[in-house]
Amino acid sequence: MNDFLVFDNVSKRYGSVHAVDHVSLSIRRGEFFSLLGPSGCGKTTLLRILAGFEQPDTGRVLLDGVDITDQPPNKRTVNTIFQNYALFPHLSVWENIAFGLRVARKPEADIETSVNGMLDLIQMTAHARKKPHQISGGQKQRVAIARALINQPTVLLLDEPLAALDLKLRQRMLLELDQIHDQVGITFLYVTHDQGEAMSLSDRIAVMNQGRIEQLGSPAEIYETPHSSFVAAFIGDTNFFDGSVDHLVDSEYCQLQIEGFPTVECFNDKRKQSGDLVHLSVRPEKFRLSLEPPTLPPHHNLVQGKVEEVVYLGSQTKYLIQVQEYRLAITQQHSRFLLDQRPIRWEDTVWVWWHADDGYMLDRYSEQDEALMAMPAH
After folding, report:
1. Burial (Cβ within 10 Å: 0-12, 13-18, ≥19) of residue 21
2. pLDDT at position 199
3. Residues 124 and 221 in one domain
4. Looking at 181, 213, 230, which one is the last position of a domain?
5. Most C-beta atoms within 10 A of its C-beta, which of 192, 208, 228, 320?
6. Which helix (H) or strand (E) holds 277?
C-alpha cells in the first residue's frame, strides 16, 4: 500500500518562520523512510506534527486511512525515540522496557513474555537488571528502541537517535537499526542531518530545505541524479562547473564551454541547445588519475592539472588538482595495494579523465544553493 502514512499539504509557521511549507508526502507501510536536511529545514517539525506534539496550521495527517490530525499524542499508534534516550534513571533496563505495558495495564504474564522477547531482539538479556547509568550509550539507545517498540506501534519515529554516539558506535548502531527494522517490519520514520546515515539505512529519502521537500527518491537516485545544486551539495561532495552549450556532438551528447576550464563533453539528458546555460555536477569518485596520458575510447574527457594536496585515508586517497582556474576534488578508492607503483605526489603534473555520462546537469541553481555549497562538506 503506497499511502500508509500521508502528509497532505501540511504547513506550520512559528511567527514569521515557515517551518513546514505545504508539504505533501506519502510513506509506504513497512518502509524505512528518512527526512534529511540541515538544521531548521523543517524535518523535526514534521515529525512532531505526526507524533501529535505540534498542530499543523493547515493540512492533514492520515495514518492507514484514518485522519489523525486532531488526535492527542496518546491516542496515536506512533512512538518516538529521541537522541537523549529519555530512560528512567531509577528503573532497570527490564522495567524501562516494561513501562509502556504497565501503563496500558497489560497482564503480568504478557508483560514478562513481551519484555523478554524485546531483550532478546536487542541482545540485552544479560543486562536486564542494570540501571541506565551502568550501561553504554549504544546499549541505552537499544533500550530506548525496545521501549518504543514494546507497545507495537504502527510507526516508529526516530529523531536524530544516533547524534550523541561516537563514530564507531554510530556505525555499529546503523547496522543494528537496520536489522531491527527488518525483524519487526513496521514503518520507521528517521530524521537526521547526516547524509551518511540516511543513505545507508533508507529505502527512500526526502531531502528538505526551508520547509519544503527538495527531492524525494531512493538513496541512489538522489546521489546520482540530484534535482538541484542544494541536493548535490548536501548529499556527499561534488565539483560544480558553470558554462554553456558550445555545440551538440550528436543526439545524446554536447560540448560545454566553461570559462577557465577546458571544453567538456557531457551527456545531454536535459536536451540543452547551443548557447543554453548549464550548471554541471561531477562527483569526486567519478574522476580517474594517472601520471601518464591514457588512451581513451569516445565520450571521455581528458585534462591535465597539478596536484595541490594529497590526503591518504587508508581505504581511499583524496586529491585537490588545479586545472586552469578550477580546483578539482578527486577521490580514488584503493582496490589494490601496489608498493611497486609510483604514487601520485604533491606538485605532480597528472592527467585527469572521466566519462561524459558521469557529469550530471542540474535543474536549477540559486544564490541560496551557492551559500550552502560554501559550507563545510558533511
Report:
1. middle
2. 92
3. yes
4. 230
5. 208
6. strand 277-282
Query: Which pLDDT does position 378 carry in this prediction?
Result: 37
> Average per-residue pLDDT in the chain?
89
Q: What is the pLDDT of residue 373?
A: 45
Which residue stretches of the chain have pLDDT < 50?
1, 369, 372-378
Give residue 370's pLDDT. 52
Q: What is the pLDDT of residues 357-375, one digit of tens each?
A: 999 998 655 555 455 444 4
Cell 561534488 maps to which residue? 238
Please list, in sequence order, all residues whose beta carbon lies within 8 angstroms of the beta carbon of residue 377, skipping any fewer than 6 positions away. 236, 237
* Residue 320 CB coordination number (10 Å): 16
Q: Residue 10 CA to chain centroid, in angstroms?
A: 22
**What is residue 2's predicted lDDT score, i.e. its pLDDT?**
64
| Residue 368 maps to a domain | yes
Beta strands at 78-82 and 155-159: parallel, antiparallel or unpaired: parallel
What are the CA-CA distances from residue 262 to residues 9, 258, 304 (Å)?
Answer: 46, 7, 9
Q: Count how many domains the chain has.
A: 2
**Residue-level pLDDT at 1:** 45
C-alpha cell recorded at residue 136: 553504554
d(CA 148, CA 146): 5
Q: Do 264 and 349 have their domain in common?
A: yes
- Full residue range of the structural domain in which residue 354 is found: 231-290+299-373
Q: Give just the sign of the alpha carbon dihedral 280, 284, 285, 289.
A: positive
Degrees, nearest 5: CA angle 272-244-309? 120
Last residue of a domain, one of 207, 230, 253: 230
| Exposure letters 174-205 (e unless 16+ CB within 10 A, then b) | beebeebbeebebbbbbbbbbbebbbebbebb
CATH code: domain of residue 312: 2.40.50.100
